Amino acid sequence: MKGTAGVMLLVVLSLCGCPQTTAAQSQAIVDDFPAYFAEMEKNKPINWTSVLDLLSTGQLSPTCYSHTYTVHNDTTLAKSYAQLMLDSTGKLTPSGVFQGNLLDIGNYKECTTDANNAVDRPEGIQAMYCLVTWAKTVIPQSLYYYDEKFRQGVCVPKSCSDSEVQDLTETGFLGVKPMPSWIPVSVYCQKEQAYSTGAIVALAVIAILLCVLAVSTSYELFITIWFRDAERKPFTTSRVGRFCLSCSVYSNTKKVFNTYQHPGQLPALHGIRVISALWIIFGHSENFSPIDRANTVERVEDRERWWYFIRGNYGMAVDTFLLLSGLLVTYLFMKQMKKTGGQFTWRDYGLHVLHRYLRLTPVYAFLLMINTCLIEYMGSGPWWAIRDNWAMSFVQVCREYWWANLLYINNFVGQRCFLHGWYLGVDMQLYVTLTGLLVVLYRHPKVGVAVACFLIGSTWLLNGVLYYFMVDVYGQIYRYTTYRWSFTRMAPYIIGILLGYLLFRTDRKVPDTPNTRKLMMLGWLVGTAFALVALVTPYGASEANLLGHAAWRTFERSLFAAGVAWVVYACCVGYGGIVSEFLSWSGWMPLSRLTYTAYIIHPMIIQAYYMDYKGAMLYSSVTWWFMFVSFSFMSLVCGFAASMMAEAPFLELEKILLPNRRGREATPETAADGGHDNIAMKTVECDPDPPLPPHGGKGTSGPNGC
């Protein structure tokens, strides 16, 4: 007790001894600014000739001129609203220009809230925030890759249009000091916008879905509470009852968080799937930022640090998903063919494709609708919904090319809508076109393996030729072509096909002999080496060595996919050890079921956060980690909401409306996961197998983690 009292006494004495800034002193400091701003306004250079020319030619409206002139005079008279408008305007004198600070965006809240709430503001004048983009600034050459423009926030009368603000910025009439070599190239003013027809339709769709979910959930809760188990059957087996249960948040939430693993599953894939999805979010946390940084040079310098390969190669996670997709499709397809005696008709193929389309598209279309129709109304700030913001430019593209995404040809047609949606197009195209290979592989294994190897070699050759002749593999030509073409990205998918076929043919068993253990150890060493080499060599050969660079780019994704394939195989045949235990942890299962929706929605969350930022943002490696954790959490939470609204209900409705595919009849085990059966970002529930001998049984090694 005495010790505590002593500490408290020391704290009080130390506070008493510290210099204090009183409220009166603080107010005195603030009171100095009105006179300073008034003097600044009087002395600023205004090109009145240009202002009057704009007025006489009709480029400047009388109302805009009158209000701007009033603000100018009221600033010299030290009226608070006018001085708040001047104070919230960027002054074109930022610090750290040679560190990449090409921003002076002012203060958004001070302009839109404080100035408009000032007691001395004239009734007819309202403050409005605009973001001006200047070109031809003198900036370091090293920054040209990122931005060649200077962005500045200005607070102007709301009666002025964007074009009038752009014309007046050069005259100095808006409190902006013009520089002779700087030209305003664009202006975007934040104004309240009426909801578009698309936005109204989107809100109506969301409202209808919420009503259906509420009614369905209430229905299930009512029959659960009111009736006994035996009396409940008529209410759950009828078409209406099944429809209500398919849309019930209660039932679908239980399915998402169910961690029971049925026999025949591939649980090791849960961990791989979640880790891969988080890796993508990690990379996108910074790279999908649609706003400029005030220290771009530091961002550039980080790319040269030794640890950057973790961030720089996050795109390898896409190859993991392609590998898993090929594996799962093949493994389940082979089981289906086995049940039907190798029969596969055109009708089966039609159901095969339709099943896939209906599994993926409803929630994809739902989130695409929100991104296209509603995101611009979801926030405000200096960066929100500005026309030259690249995030909003993709929204504009989506309004024209949304149909390409829903047909899964967006990686070939038009511009980029949903920047990350190219992967879904690649995955769907490979699923549709390589079904024939699966049939051949089942009926004529040697021919199928030969065709698969030929396709892998062909994609290697094509990649090598394209890389060699395109040279600028980091430019837009690379992004629009080789990076997102299905026939240049199919090697990992076909590796997954071969792995799935191997697991099917061997029934996930290997001989339990000393030689097997040695070979498995060698496989771990080689597989790990493949993956590490692909990761730790971010850019492969030197850019100066074009041939070596092209050669490296040709094989790096296949090397990484081969390394991941070995991890999957070892876990499935019982030689995964602690890795298998970690990847098969039941806690991965709920997260695994949300990776598909989290993948689709995470760029929207990232871009919404950054666009809602009210000031200049600094780049930091530490900040990147904190943003990653936050974005991952929000992506999973919002992904869960999207799954409840537009994914899980349609998964169940498909079972009600469409016939079962031959060889894929529903069982309690296969139905347990809502049909998440054949896509890398969804959970796999394999058909249950006969009981297997325990690990170490005679002649075989049983599954461990598969």
TrEMBL record:
Source domain of life: Eukaryota
UniProt entry tagged with the keyword Signal: yes
Stretch list, region Disordered: 666-706
Annotated TM spans: 199-227, 314-334, 363-386, 422-442, 449-470, 490-507, 519-539, 559-579, 591-610, 622-646
Example of a GO MF term: acyltransferase activity, transferring groups other than amino-acyl groups
Keywords: Membrane, Signal, Transmembrane, Transmembrane helix
Chain ranges of the Nose resistant-to-fluoxetine protein N-terminal domain: 61-191
SMART domains membership: NRF
Signal peptide annotation: 1-23
InterPro entries: Acyl_transf_3_dom, Nose-resist-to-fluoxetine_N, O2_lipid_transport_reg
Cited Pfam families: Acyl_transf_3, NRF
Annotated Gly residues bias: 696-706
Protein name as catalogued: Nose resistant to fluoxetine protein 6-like
Gene source species: Branchiostoma floridae
Gene (name only): LOC118423179
